Amino acid sequence: MIIAGDLNAKHGAWNSRKNDQVGKTLNEYLSSRIDTTVAVPSTPTRYPTDINYSPDFLYIAIMKTGNIGYIIENLNDELFSDHTPILLVISISSAHTYPPKPQYITNWKLFEKEMENLSFPLPKMSSKIQISNVINHLSSQRSWKKGHSSQDRKNDLPNFIQNHIRKKRKLRAAWQRNRDPDIKKSLNKQTSLVRELLHLHMDNEWTWLMDSIDNNDEG
């Protein structure tokens, strides 16, 4: 089973800039499953035409298929709107995938201290509803404490790549306003360049990660 698209569910677990109630509910459900995979592109799926607003992740794929291989990417040059379509390729064999990097960094020592200081006297419970309410309250407290112990991860893309992305967003906004064929050509060229730079950057990060794991195993 696969559910994919804009589910109106934002959560930092799949790199959204903020959490909403639907995203919190969905993340709690997914966290309780061991047979469900969440696939997220490595780059945002919406780039607002207003450069004062930041890109965000809106499109995700939920797959209840166990351990599978998949590749998911943005098709940035296939659509003229500020929402980019995504391509999801699924394989029953092992596939090379890029796991999404969390947008938040958690200070686990601070989180542990916050949880130790949490005062939560257990009331008398005589029904499933009361037990469920207590569990939900404890879960919300845990989520709040974790959020209080976390901060936004800084964008670690090199400055020259960020500059090319800004240029692409400006070209996209200009194309949407004017529909000038020359601007469209420049946008296509810039989109291809950004895609190539991002792929090279991800390959380098992946290679570095694999090398670091190998070095740790040898130690």
UniProtKB/TrEMBL annotation:
Matching InterPro entries: Endo/exonu/phosph_ase_sf (IPR036691), Endo/exonuclease/phosphatase (IPR005135)
Sequence ranges assigned to domain Endonuclease/exonuclease/phosphatase in this UniProt record: 1-86
A Pfam family matched in the record: Exo_endo_phos_2
Residues in the signal sequence: none
A molecular-function term among this protein's GO annotations: catalytic activity
Record's protein name: Endonuclease/exonuclease/phosphatase domain-containing protein
Taxonomic lineage: Eukaryota, Metazoa, Ecdysozoa, Arthropoda, Hexapoda
